[in-house]
Structure formats: structure tokens, C-alpha cells
Records
---
Amino acid sequence: MSITKIAVMGYGVVGSGTVELFYKNKESICKKADRELDIKYILDLRDFPGDPFEDKLTKDFNVILNDDEVQIVAELMGGKTFAYEYTKQLLSKGKSVVTSNKELVAAHGAELLAIAKKNKCNYLFEASVGGGIPIIRPLHQCLVGNKIEKIAGILNGTTNFILTKMIYDQLSFDEALKLAQQLGYAEKDPTADIEGYDACRKICILGSLAFGKHIYPEYVHCSGITRVTLDDVEYADNAGYAIKLIGSVEAEGDKLNAMVCPRLVSKNNMLASVNDVYNAISVTGDGVGEVLFYGRGAGKLATASAVVGDIVDAAKHIGRPIVSLAWEDSSSRDFIIRYKESAVSIYVRITADEVDSYKEEISEMFGYVDFIPRKRRCEKELAFITPKLAEFEIDKRLEQISKKCKIESKIRVL
Ligand code: HSE
């Protein structure tokens, strides 16, 4: 039997994890793939003297591109420049590509899937969302009998770790971020995580797959957790909620409501008890109801687990594109609802001298509001949750309040 040869591009955390896991479980992996598999090349510009796989290292992408023996390539380099060009070239030559690169899938998924289909190979990206959690394959295979109604999830481990430390250990945002960096969860430049961009790319991938049209990150309202304070965490807790960064996409009529933002999540919702670096994704289908996918959303071997799963699937489908893994491209955001038009409840924290004197006015303005109690509440501070209204209507009322009080925080309720 001929051996199916694999190349791994990028020998960083996920790349080295993929090589490690592959060789650790090679026998059972090949048995399940029903063929002999082996890694022929590892592409990286760095040197790794003494590495057990030093003989497989190459710095030249063309060696992989032009080797007809290589049928599957794991792109674990990240980014949108070289990874994009290399992926296009590989797919155009009929080599399947598997990846953890959510930035690339979110930006060019529709195009790359189309190139793969045309060239009778596959572009697989189970590792791009939720690390080791199976979510891509369940969406287009196990749940294919459903019309998907809603997806909402905790899609970023770093921010979930930070929020967990704020909730349980009363660390401030800055202290929790520093700890996340010390523990190696957050990057030196943590912008993509804390501003929500990483979660946004992931919800775009899930939404594109579930609803069949490419949702570009630019179409999606995205805000991160940098403005969440310990005051908000405590008020939320007193009202029966935990604050979580939630990526969501939901069908509303013939349009989609997609968003990434911090949310007050009721403690009765399972997402509220997903802590530390864990991720969880809730999917609601018209047949199955709600299902929850939970696990390690990042990390070397957890992500490698999804990459190796895709390598095996690619090996089983050589010359046969997996047609259920596809969506149309989109050229405008018309199918995405303007988020301010969507109905939502909002938690609001305000400050003013003698702020309690505005309670009646605020209640009348909204019909009713739930004022949130807090132990040792500062007498200049008030927090409440509005009823569910179109967000622009809530904003109009808050504009009135802001003439007398300072609006310190606004966080949507899930
Ligand atoms: N920075 C990401 C996270 C890594 O914290 O979830 C996995 O995509």
C-alpha cells in the first residue's frame, strides 16, 4: 500500500503538538484512516537543532508544493499573508489543506472552499474554532438534518480566563490580564483576544457554515472586555448573572443577528459556569433543540487533536471534496441585521450625586426596570436592567439619563 504523505507548515505550538500527537498515536490513527500515513516535511524558517524530527525540516515552501507525494498539508502558520498564498497554491494543485487558522478562514473561507472543490480536494478547519472541541464537523454532518436557529458561545479562552479571575478572585481586568500573560494564555499583544476579534472570527466561521453565506468579520458588531469592571462583575453576580464574552449568531426572519460582546449570562444558563480557559458553544436546531459543546478551546495537544482528526478525514477523502462543508460568498452585509434594531435587555450602571432621586424617573422612562442591590453600595451609584426593547430605543432613553447622570457601563443581557 502506498503511503499518504503529509506536510506540516509552521512548527510552533500547534505544529509541534500535531507532530507529537501524530507519532504518539500513529498506529491507531493509520488504522482508522485505513491507510498508511506519514509526515514527510515540516516547514519553518527557524532552526531546531537536536529536534527529533530535524530531518523533516525544510525552509522552502516549493519543496512541499512540488512534491507529488504530498497529498495533505497542515497549515499551522497563522496569519493572512503567506498562509493565504500558500493555501491557494496547494489547493490549486489538488493537495488538501487542514488548518487551525481562524483569521484566514474568516477572511477567505468561501474562496478557499471553492478552490478546493474545483480541484477535487478538501479545505478542513476543525481546529479553527474551539480548539479541541468538535464543532465544525457536527455542524455540517451530525446536525445537517436541522435548520440551525442560533449559535452562542464562549469562543475565546484567554478572555474567559480573565473574566473568571475577576469573578472568583476579584482581580481587576489589568491584574487578570497580566496573570493570563504570565501563564502563557494571552499573547504579548493581547489585542485580538481582549477586543473580541478572535471570538468574532470564530463566530463568523460558525455562522457562515450554519447559515450558508460568508459572514465577514467586518459585518459583525464586536466589542471586547476591556471596559468590564469589578463593580459590574459584582452587580451582575447580585442579580444572578455571570459576565461572559459571547459570540452569537441567530436567525431573525430572513436575516441574521451576529454579534460579539460581553453579556450578562443567567446563572441558570450552562454557559455561565464555563470557567478558566474552557470554551463552550451552544447550538440550537429546529429538530435537536439545544446542544452544548464544551472543552479546551486552545492549547498544544487539544488543538492538535482537531488537526489530526482533519488529516485523517482528508486522507479518507482524497480526490473527493466533502460537499457539506461549504457556503456561498457574500458581497454585502444586507443579510445581517443592524444590531441596534434588535431587541435586547441591557444592564446599566450610572453615577451621580443623590442618584437614588432619579429612580422613579428611570422606572417611568422604561415602564419598569430591575434595580440591582449591592452590599456596601456607594450612594452615588445605581445599577439596573432594562426591559427588552430595540437597542436604539434604549439608547434614546439613556441619552436623557446621561444629561443628569454619568453612564459608567452598559452590558447586554444574553
Ligand atoms: N487566543 C485564543 C484563545 C487561542 O484564547 O482562545 C485559541 O484560538
---
Amino acid sequence: MTAAISLHNVTLSYHRHPAVHHVSGQFQEGIATAIIGPNGAGKSTLLKAIVGLMPTPDGMVRFGKHKAKDIAYLPQQASIDRSFPISVLDTVLLGNWQHSGWFGGVSQKARAAAEAALIKVGLEGFGPRHIGSLSSGQFQRVLFARILLQDAPLILLDEPFTAIDTRTTTDLLHLIDHWRYEGRTIISVLHDYEQVRNHFSETVLMAKECVAWGATDVVLTRENLQRANVMAENWLENAAICHRDETPSTEAA
Ligand code: ADP
Ligand code: MG
């Protein structure tokens, strides 16, 4: 197996507080890998580092045959302001800007591809609708249509199914299966272990450090999950201690 992305001792901090600690491992080419772990485990931070949204020293995140520019990335809780006056079709077409350039205009071909992508996600005829008029499930379908248009070999998804209805989740999981069948590399943060078992052959379990990384069956054990939860409880206890330490100095001031 060849690595699509390899991590070498990845350590990432916000204001010098480490969010990801000494993580090393390989995301295999053409494989679907799930990233799981308690809240605050550094899952989103790790994805941001891979995409290039968090600065990393040279060599910490290395790419195989594809590069960071070949990634289609869906952030946690879509960062698009849905009150923005933009249609469904134009939102999908935003996936195409890397091919057309900002000022390249939209070709008839791109428009037809966007319409085809909308059909694939079950939103035929939704093109002219305002994005603000959609349910969250429908909007998530639009964002998946945009990824379809991007046609990227590397697809990174951050909690794509949180607060999304079951029907939409099932449909979009089929799309992920199809991407995997096409040989794309998929990395997704997930919370539902059933989804992980059924659709992701590899799993990374994070708790700031990497608790386990490998075949999903081997990683998703009760022992590993308990270990990750205990580690998360320890962060909370440490936070509480820090808070108490700060209180006297505040009173003294
Ligand atoms: P997860 O996605 O696993 O829930 P995150 O990567 O979002 O975890 O966060 C990991 C840690 O980094 C948490 O302690 C979180 O509070 C902190 N963190 C995340 N984003 C920021 C930020 N923009 N500024 C400061 N701290 C952050
Ligand atoms: Mg997150």
C-alpha cells in the first residue's frame, strides 16, 4: 500500500496549548479512513493542518502522488453563511473555480456538470433555489455536489453527518462508497461507530495523541475507546486545576 498523506510527529498548538501531540501515521491511497475521538481530541485541527489551514513545519505533513491543492475539504459545520444571496447552482459551481479561475467565467460545460452533480445527490431541479431555503440535509447534499464537481483525488470531510437526517446520511454514505470505488482517498471525522465499521476500512482514534491507528476492527475496541475517554477526562481535570490556580491571583489584583 502507498501513502496518500503521511504525518511525521505532528504537533499543533493554539496559543502554545497543544491540540495535537506527536501524531505519526499514514493515510493509505485509495482507502477510506475515519478519524474518531472525544470532543476536543484535535480531529478538526489535524484536518486543518493537512489542508494547509494550520501552519506546520516542513516535512511534518507529506503528500504522496497528490498535493494539498488536490484536496476537496468540507469543514465542520459548513462555513458558508446561508443568508448570503446565492443560488444552489452557483454554490455547486464554486467547486469549479480552481479549473475556471476567479475571472474565467462559467462555461456551459461547467454548468451542465453542476446540474449533473445535483441530480447525483438527489436535488434535481434545485439549481435556481436560494441556499437559505434548504433544510440542513439538503444543504449538505449541495456541498457534496460541490465536492463531486471538484473531482478531487483526496477528500477530507469533518463531521459530515452531524445533525443531518438519516435519509440524507444514507445517500451521502453511498456517495462516499462510490468515491472509494473510484479509487479516491477519503478521510472523514465521524462519531457514529456503525458508519465507521460499515464504510471505513481504516480508523484513527485520537485523544490529542493518537491512541490507535490501523484496521477499523482492530482500532474500534472497547479498551481503546475507554482509553481515549479517560484521556479526555484528564484534560478536563487539568483544566479545572488551572482554573482554580488562577482564581487567587485574580482576587489579589
Ligand atoms: P475536535 O475536532 O476533536 O473536537 P479540535 O481540533 O476542534 O477538536 O480542538 C482541539 C483543541 O484545540 C480543543 O481543546 C479546542 O478547544 C482547541 N481549539 C480548537 N480551535 C481553536 C482555536 N481556533 N483557538 C484556540 N483553541 C482552539
Ligand atoms: Mg471537530
